[in-house]
């Protein structure tokens, strides 16, 4: 039975004169088998550095600002544990999510099958078209050991209406692009909603979106 998730939090900027720019906060979860590089992807995106995968205990949390032409988006990134013993509690972390990255290792066929199982779990929790889902084939730096072809993964993604991208947290290949694709998809989804169905401004959002000036400058440059 499908369950409806929480609407994104939004606030309109306040300043001199009229403004159409909006601020949104979206929850993004990373799901996948252990050692596929979920933590490395999150760390590379937020810290612009590479860290070898270390098993996540429960869940790790990151935030990052994305500055688009008409909106500022704060991504709350939840990196979930991939070990089987944590599977029963993972639904607590992806509850009320707005987007999900289903990560697998292109050099390990079994992790691709596991990503498909995660998709089934999400389909039980969310309404169709309610969650932006990106299928991510990580570790393109191990292309010589590839067990999942680009064509196979892309075909599956298309059959399920998912975004598909391949990355390498180690070489920093398309990591930022994945999160930018999520930001654009979420904003497009927001803009397509009927005005009456859009959430009311969440007053605390504007306070929560305040970041050190150097971080804000960096996100806007990217």
Commentary on this structure:
Residues 192-222 are annotated as: Disordered. GO terms for molecular function: G protein activity; GDP binding; GTP binding; metal ion binding. This is Ras-related protein Rab-17. Residues 211-222 have a biased composition (Polar residues). It catalyses: GTP + H2O = GDP + phosphate + H(+). With 222 residues, the protein is an alpha/beta fold. It has a single domain (22-200), classed as 3-Layer(aba) Sandwich (Rossmann fold). 34% of the residues lie in helices and 23% in strands. The protein has seven helices and seven strands. Strands 1, 2, 3, 4, 5, 6 and 7 form a seven-stranded mixed beta sheet that branches. A hairpin with a 3-residue loop joins strand 3 and strand 4 (71-80). The radius of gyration is 17 Å and the shape is globular. The model is unreliable at 1-6, 10-19, 82-86 and 200-222 (pLDDT under 50).
């Amino acid at each position: 039975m499908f369950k409806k998730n929480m609407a994104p939090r939004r606030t309109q900027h306040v300043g001199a004169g009229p403004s159409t720019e909006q601020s949104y906060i979206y929850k993004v979860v990373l799901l996948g088998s252990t050692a596929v590089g979920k933590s490395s992807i999150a760390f590379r995106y937020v810290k612009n550095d590479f860290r070898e995968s270390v098993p996540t205990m429960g869940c790790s949390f990151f935030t990052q600002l994305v500055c688009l032409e008409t909106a500022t988006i704060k991504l709350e990134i939840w990196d979930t544990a991939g070990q089987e013993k944590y599977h029963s509690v993972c639904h607590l972390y992806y509850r009320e999510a707005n987007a999900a990255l289903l990560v697998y290792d292109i050099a390990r066929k079994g992790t691709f099958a596991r990503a498909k199982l995660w998709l089934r779990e999400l389909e039980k929790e969310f309404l169709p078209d309610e969650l932006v889902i990106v299928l991510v084939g990580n570790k393109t730096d191990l292309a010589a050991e590839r067990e999942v072809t680009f064509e196979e993964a892309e075909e599956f993604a298309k059959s399920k209406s998912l975004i598909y991208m391949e990355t390498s947290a180690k070489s920093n290949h398309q990591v930022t692009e994945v999160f930018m694709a999520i930001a654009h998809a979420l904003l497009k989804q927001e803009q397509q909603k009927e005005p009456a169905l859009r959430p009311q401004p969440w007053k605390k959002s504007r306070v929560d979106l305040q970041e050190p000036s150097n971080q804000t400058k960096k996100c806007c440059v990217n």
